[in-house]
Design goal:
Layout (H helix, E strand, L loop, with lengths): L10 H41 L2 H41 L5 H10 L3
Helix pairs in contact: 1-2, 2-3
Main location: nucleus
Family: Belongs to the EARLY FLOWERING 4 family.
Protein name: Protein EARLY FLOWERING 4 domain-containing protein
């Protein structure tokens, strides 16, 4: 994993920390994909609204439902990320505080 974010943080924890970071990265990519889709939905909803055509306004009902479902998915993904991060930090603080998450944990609790 040379050149990666987790290289050089301790051999024992690099693999586990790398998997955690990859999981976080995947979740952030998933969130960004949904947000990009929402941007397209909002643009289409706005165009339909401005057209004042009955069929376009009716189509907005389904588009708004899809937008709401996407917002719920994003909120759920962020909730899962928060839970996973808390678990990772807690697990790291139970160990010897080496590895990426241990460093995050040390910085979090070190003042001044």
């Amino acid at each position: 994993m040379e050149g990666s974010v987790v290289s050089g943080f301790g051999d024992r924890h690099t693999n586990a920390d790398g998997k955690v970071l990859q999981s976080f990265q995947k979740s952030f990519v998933d969130v960004q994909d949904i947000l990009d889709q929402n941007r397209l939905l909002i643009n289409e909803i706005n165009q339909n609204h401005e057209s004042n055509q009955p069929e376009n306004l009716s189509r907005n009902v389904g588009l708004i439902k899809e937008l709401n479902n996407n917002i719920r998915r994003v909120a759920s993904l962020y909730g899962d990320l928060s839970h996973s991060f808390s678990r990772s930090v807690d697990a790291s603080s139970d160990g010897d505080s080496s590895g990426t998450l241990g460093i995050i944990n040390q910085k979090r609790f070190r003042s001044g």
